[in-house]
Design a protein that fits this description.
Elements: H1 2-5, E1 11-16, H2 22-33, E2 40-44, H3 51-55, E3 64-67, E4 70-74, H4 77-95, H5 101-113, H6 117-136, E5 139-143, H7 147-190, H8 200-241, E6 247-254, H9 257-272, E7 279-285, H10 292-311, E8 317-321, H11 329-338
Parallel strand pairs: 1-5, 1-6, 2-4, 2-5, 6-7, 7-8
Antiparallel strand pairs: 3-4
Helix pairs in contact: 2-11, 4-5, 4-6, 6-7, 6-8, 7-8, 7-9, 9-10
Length: 340
Amino acid sequence: MLLELLAGRRVVFVGGKGGVGKTSVASAFALSQANGEQRVLLVSTDPAHSLGHLFGMPIGDGFTEVAPGLDACELDPERTMDTHLAGAERTMRRLMPEHLGAEVTKHLTLAREAPGAAEAAVLERLADVLEGALGAYDLVVVDTAPSGHTVRLLGLPEVVTAWTSGLLGRQQRSGRFADAMANLDRRQTDADPGAELVPRSGRRRRRRRASEPDDRRAREDEIRDILLRRQARFTHLRSLVTDPARSAFVIVLAAERLPVQETVELHGHLARLGTSVDALVVNKRSPAGQGALLQRRREHEETHLHTLRTALPHIPRHEVSLLAEDLHGTAGLRRLGSAL
């Protein structure tokens, strides 16, 4: 049983090709785990949110109780991007010289359109949500975007950490160079025998120049602190995603050619990122003994499942039969959860 395979994990990621029912499986699993003893949070990172449709109620970017013991949240990419850039703008305008205000505006405008910017903002929000949720909830279930988005999302912590380390290294080298130049300027000033003959206005300018390294150092210290906090946040997220004792990844698929192929590819990408796949859920499997048409369909599905078993023989596989009715509301999700 899927529930037994995932027992004891704090975070469960559910992914797969679009349209195979991963949101339904994630929701049913989260609902089945929410009881009097456990508090569960269900988070969707998919831009095409459908949690609200499944539970029959509006679910926004904040935490909404959808069932006793179960809260849900749909991360809004646009709102997340707006909040992320607004915070970056406040920090940059406070730390950058005033005459560079136009450059700050230009940089942020370009950042909004940059490839991967939305994923980076959502990833940072997800890191914040997980960091806070692990102290308030017993389990967090993450309904991820379709496979390609998921790979980019989970690969970003390593990229951002490396990028931040590079920035910190360059800042350190720049700081050493600036300090050397400031020390050279002070030595030249101290060695100037006519320094006391300089007019007061000139001495004031010299005092301002002498204080500039301290102002610069204070700005650089704050920038370094910001970068280190961001690096720590992503390092923590990466350690969580790659820790099999705390997190698990489940791939949901249909017994069809394209979903099977995409599942094998997704498994390969996740393995390269250091994330292990703990279970495969074959959703909407044609039931046996229900007429000639479904029997033929089931036999056809079996050829694709043979490909899956050959490619990923070591991963536990769980099959969920096609349901007679549409999934809607907690009653329908509980029926699906009982099959997990």
